[in-house]
Design goal:
517 residues; alpha/beta; elongated
Length: 517
């Protein structure tokens, strides 16, 4: 895990293997490059001509662009890394937190193999320092559990044998006032948050022969013990006894049985309670409605919603938030076999509602429905479910943003604003009443499929049926951003991303402070 320190040293005097500075395009009407604040000492070492040198090397200042150059005499670090910040802000304005977060992530990725790097990016307030810390710690992430003889999910990690470089080992943040309580708190929050996001990424990236419902539940139990979170695990016998027909129906075709995991973090001074529900399909073959080749190779990521909920609850506990947060992980494998649910089967859900299964690959809504019903019994102030639920949402919004639906417009707006604030791209989506009729079944109370067009909205309407009366609820479909298949960018790696964790944590913080009413 990459270490974070706040340093009082100056950029010229700190001993490090590299120093990171920001460079930007001149504001509107200007020309050339601008060296960002925080890098004054480095620019001075270049005789005030750092921008000119970078231009000569072809740097443009574009967001995420990285340029390395040897440091001149006068700097303790041997390497200077200039990272692009886009267009410089106008006078009396500052860089947006997400710009700094992505820049720090790009720099950290470029410094793989480096032991210590000093980050001298613009810091005007604690929010800037926190964003840079988050970006650097997330950007330094690497999943190596199955490389160089490492032991996977439960095994030990060994040093590199095949010449692959290790992630950046230490981030020293300059200009962050380490003796200031606010800056120290910001750094501690960044460490807790990013460690749990990276743990969620590890879970998402773990192959399904090692991560299945029982082993995921064991990870949750261990974390609960470490952080004072009460964990309850319902195995197959308990699920049968409780009548959880949705979770059992999805998991009955797999050799690895399903689980429902409850993680309860409580604070003695809490006045509000939140319930987070995560879809945890540890592998989704589609079941009898089998996915075609080309669509199942990454389906280990279909538990990303449960990973996000797990990470958010643990982060809330680590931060000691004055709000009760309960996480529900609905875990199952969706596999075809002689015991698997068939298209046309009718399941009796935990709520008592009967559902005709028209497509076994629309399984996420079935496990979520049972968990939402169970969460509703505790009458929380709000329920938020997170799921890689529909390909339709990816078609609608692309691969870098998630959709938000809710039974309360103000709550949906709040989550959207929170997501944008923490740097998670999102978009509010409707729940059109006219699409509900498409889920009518001649055999059961409800079908698990409706109209093909607007499929992401239909899935939201299905879940809405299982929310307790009078409870505020939102649904976040992270099917697009949960698993990144392209080249890394900013602080986003290839593979699991930890999408929605930051939004859930900030929602808990807002609720604890009373900002959401």
């Amino acid at each position: 895990m990459t270490a974070l320190t706040l340093s009082t040293a100056g950029a010229a005097t700190l001993r490090a293997d590299a120093i990171v500075v920001g460079v930007a395009k001149s504001p509107q009407g200007g020309s050339g490059l601008v060296v960002a604040t925080g890098a004054e000492a480095v620019d001075k070492a270049f005789g005030g001509k750092l921008a000119t040198v970078l231009e000569t090397l072809g740097a443009s200042g574009a967001e995420g662009e990285v340029t390395k150059l040897p440091a001149p005499s006068g700097l303790k670090a041997p390497v200077v890394l200039a990272v692009g910040l886009g267009t410089a802000p106008e006078k009396d304005e500052t860089y947006q937190a997400e710009v700094l977060r992505r820049a720090a992530g790009s720099a950290a990725r470029a410094l793989t193999g480096t032991k210590k790097a000093a980050f001298a990016l613009p810091i005007e307030a604690t929010e800037d320092a926190e964003a840079i810390a988050e970006g650097a710690l997330l950007g330094a992430y690497a999943f190596t559990a199955y490389q160089d003889g490492n032991g996977g999910l439960s095994g030990s990690s060994k040093s590199s044998k095949n010449g692959k470089k290790e992630p950046l080992a230490e981030v020293a943040l300059l200009g962050a006032k380490p003796r200031d309580k606010a800056y120290k708190a910001a750094a501690e929050r960044a460490v807790a948050l990013t460690e749990e996001i990276n743990r969620a990424r590890d879970l998402i990236n773990t192959p399904p022969n090692d991560l299945y419902p029982e082993s995921f539940a064991a990870v949750a139990a261990a974390a609960g013990k470490e952080h004072g979170i009460k964990v309850q695990i319902l195995d197959e016998k308990a699920l049968v006894k409780g009548g959880y027909g949705g979770i059992l129906g999805v998991g009955q075709g797999a050799a690895n049985g399903p689980r429902l995991v409850k993680l309860a973090y409580t604070h003695p001074k809490a006045e509000k309670s939140l319930a987070y529900v995560g879809k945890g399909i540890t592998y989704d073959s589609g079941g009898i409605s089998l996915k075609p080749a080309g669509h199942n190779e990454t389906m280990k990521c279909d538990m990303s919603g449960a990973a996000a909920v797990f990470a958010a609850v643990v982060t809330a506990a680590r931060l000691g938030l004055k709000v009760n947060v309960t996480g529900w992980l609905a875990l199952a494998e969706n596999m075809p076999s002689g015991t698997a649910t068939r298209p046309g089967d009718v399941l009796r859900m935990y709520s008592g509602t009967t559902v005709e299964v028209l497509n076994t690959d629309a399984e996420g809504r079935l496990v979520l429905a049972d968990a939402i019903t169970k969460a509703s019994e505790e009458n929380p102030d709000a329920i938020v479910d997170v799921a890689t639920l529909t390909g339709a949402m990816v078609l609608a919004l692309g691969t870098r943003r998630f959709g938000i639906m809710a039974n309360d417009d103000a709550f949906r707006t709040s989550i959207h604003e929170i997501a944008e604030e923490v740097g998670e791209d999102s978009w509010p989506m409707p729940l059109p009443a006219d699409l509900r009729k498409g889920m009518d079944s001649p055999t059961a109370d409800l079908a698990n499929m409706g109209e093909r067009m607007g499929g992401g909205l239909v899935a939201g309407l299905f879940l809405k049926e299982f929310v307790g009366e009078g409870i505020t609820w939102a649904h976040i479909d992270i099917a697009g951003p949960a698993f990144h298949e392209g080249a890394p960018y900013g602080y986003t790696p290839k593979g699991g991303t930890g999408s929605a964790v930051r939004t859930l944590v900030r929602l808990a913080e807002r609720t604890a402070s009373g900002d959401l009413g």
